[in-house]
């Protein structure tokens, strides 16, 4: 079945994307296989109507553009983010205690820490090396086997462990890595893995950005396989669905897929949604194909629409009281429109009406999420992109459980639902 083939592609993408750099590289690989041409920001751009191109920044954010054959007058934009909460290595990571080499870590984003204990952890990220000729190069590393673990303390030694005890990220989260490794050289280990994976010999490790991750592969769960369980569903699921929709669309309309890094830490970076990446790219595209000047750019933006895709909180069967009684999205119940009166989400009635109409056209059910009035509300790239660019925007997402855990859960049918709606959005003639 087509849906099963899509889910297999999803599981493969999740497995091969342990970090934002890997996710971006994997998306770029699929784009190139589909005929998209890579652009470099440091070079002059020559663009033609009907062309399909993409560009990356920091190797961790990516923008893909489908340029219309007709004059460029509007863009159908889909936004997502490549990063997920987790544990990142500190620059001077090795530390020792009780005869063990451990790795000092920083918590990236709002990670749910308890599920990180007693997991088989691999190591992945970006490493910059210096070659013998002095040339610097950044390369991806993915050691996808169990290298480390954060062992729990036995309940016999902590009788309050099940009573909501706070965890100290500095003292309790460093994983054990190597027994008797007081004099172990992390750089030597990195060089060995780089030699294995890239054939790099005689290089010097200059710097790195590395993260720990759960090596348990993603899977279908449930008697009928109705669930997807994996790390980093927030928000690689949206990256995958947006990419599937773009590649399945008929190619007639102008479309943009942007996947930013650093959403989980506020988006304030050169490649984050609060940075200039999307605006830079769209200005260059408009200068090449659209109405020249700032007025032409503003007209293009205001004629366009952005659907910000980031997963939504599904109604949890064990914690139903955490939802507003009228706004508890069901897993496999269709995409969720996310609403917040205080603009934590960018949805308004006009953009929501457009999405509801798209769901009607695609014959897909649609749901709505509003947080309880006595609880805080998270946010997404939607309000940030709308603020930076001015484009009319709404926030939607696939419902999921255990957001920001090391392993999250969402519905298998929702993958197909949102893909169909976003494909309909990209192909829609009028916005």
What labels describe this entry?
431 residues; alpha/beta; Aminopeptidase; Aminopeptidase i, Domain 2; 2 domains; 9-stranded mixed sheet; 6-stranded antiparallel sheet; 10 helices; 29% helix; globular; aminopeptidase activity; Peptidase_M18_dom2; zinc ion binding
3D structure, described in words:
The chain has 431 residues and is an alpha/beta fold. The chain folds into two domains: 2-84 and 231-427, 3-Layer(aba) Sandwich (Aminopeptidase), CATH 3.40.630.10; 86-214, Aminopeptidase i, Domain 2, CATH 2.30.250.10. 29% of the residues lie in helices and 27% in strands. The protein is built from ten helices and 20 strands. The strands form three sheets. Strands 1-2-3-13-4-14-18-16-17 form a nine-stranded mixed beta sheet, sandwiched between helices. α1 crosses α5, α5 crosses α10 and α8 packs across α10 (412-427). The protein is globular, with a radius of gyration of 22 Å. The chain starts with a helix and ends with a helix. InterPro entries: Peptidase_M18, Peptidase_M18_dom2. Its cofactor is Zn(2+). GO terms for molecular function: aminopeptidase activity; metallopeptidase activity; zinc ion binding. This is M18 family aminopeptidase. Its EC number is 3.4.11.-.
**Number of beta-strand segments:** 20
For CATH, the homologous superfamily of the largest domain is named as Zn peptidases
Overall, the morphology is globular
CATH top level assignment of the largest domain: Alpha Beta
How many helices?
A: 10
Average pLDDT value?
95
The biggest beta sheet reads:
9 strands, mixed
Percent of residues in helices comes to 25-40%
Output the radius of gyration. 22 Å
Distance between the termini: 32 Å
**CATH topology-level name of the largest domain:** Aminopeptidase
Q: Which percent band covers the strand fraction?
A: 25-35%
Low-confidence stretches: none
Structural class: alpha/beta
The succession of helices and strands, N to C, reads HHEEEEEEEEHEHEEEHEHHEEEHEHEEEH
Would you identify the CATH architecture of the largest domain? 3-Layer(aba) Sandwich
Counting structural domains, the number is: 2
Within the largest sheet, what's the order of strands? 1-2-3-13-4-14-18-16-17
